[in-house]
Amino acid sequence: MKQILTAVMAGIIVLATGTGTGMCHPHVFIAQQTHVVFDQKGLAGIRVKWAFDEMFSTMILDDFDLDRNGALDQTEVAAVKEGAFSYIASYNYYIHIKIEGKPFAVKFIKDFNAEVVKGSLVYEFFIPCHVTAMPAPKEIVISPYDPEFYSAIYFPDKGYLMFENADNFTITSKADIDRNTLIYYDTVNPYALFLTFKAGS
């Protein structure tokens, strides 16, 4: 979504013209596609896809595509996970989730993969997050951001949100500013996905 990227860039300007620790800016730009996955009971988790900018993609391939074939085999994917992904575990993997207003700690992820799609490096991973559906709606907020501001994560214009196995639930969703959260030294409200779901379609 262009307005989301515009807001990210506005945050960059604010920080770049600040003082002290505010003198930082993103080095990596990531377009996020979010798949919200349901099971028979309710929310099962969130599958995230990140498409990286050209510079970061080239850097990672230079370091990890050892056979220089423009693709990543399973050994190379494992090396990418260890050397260029796992270090963000202490930051909730840059996916900050609230369930009914309460933070959900992302303690681990599953099914990590890295591949090259049309020259761009793409990460995919699954965050288990089980929330049982009830007759009354429950709210989930999913906000992707790097608290140290080295990476800027935004939602693309199209296809940024999808639902899997959702036929048995009533769902509402929107992308908007999370006005209850301040990041980057309390200067920026991040964008987030706001979802509600309840039992019954």
List strands and helices in order, with pairings.
Blueprint: H1 2-16, E1 28-38, E2 42-52, H2 54-64, H3 74-84, E3 95-99, E4 102-104, E5 110-117, E6 120-132, E7 138-144, E8 151-154, E9 161-164, E10 169-177, E11 191-199
Summarize the structure in words.
The protein has 201 residues and is an alpha+beta fold. 18% of the residues lie in helices and 42% in strands. It contains 3 helices and 11 strands; from the N terminus they run αββααβββββββββ. The protein has helices spanning 2-16, 54-64, 74-84; strands at residues 28-38, 42-52, 95-99, 102-104, 110-117, 120-132, 138-144, 151-154, 161-164, 169-177, 191-199. The strands form 2 sheets. Strands 1, 2, 5, 6, 8 and 9 form a 6-stranded mixed sheet that branches. A 5-stranded antiparallel sheet has the order 4-3-7-11-10, with no helix packed on it. The model is unreliable at 2-23 (pLDDT under 50).
Primary descriptors:
201 residues; alpha+beta; five-stranded antiparallel β-sheet
Shape: globular
What's the rounded overall pLDDT mean? Answer: 88
- Reading the helices and strands in chain order gives HEEHHEEEEEEEEE
The biggest beta sheet is recorded as: 6 strands, mixed
Structure classification: alpha+beta
Number of beta-strand segments: 11
The Cα radius of gyration reads: 17 Å
- Contiguous low-pLDDT stretches (5 residues minimum) are 2-23
Instruction: Classify the beta-strand content into a percent band.
Output: 35-45%
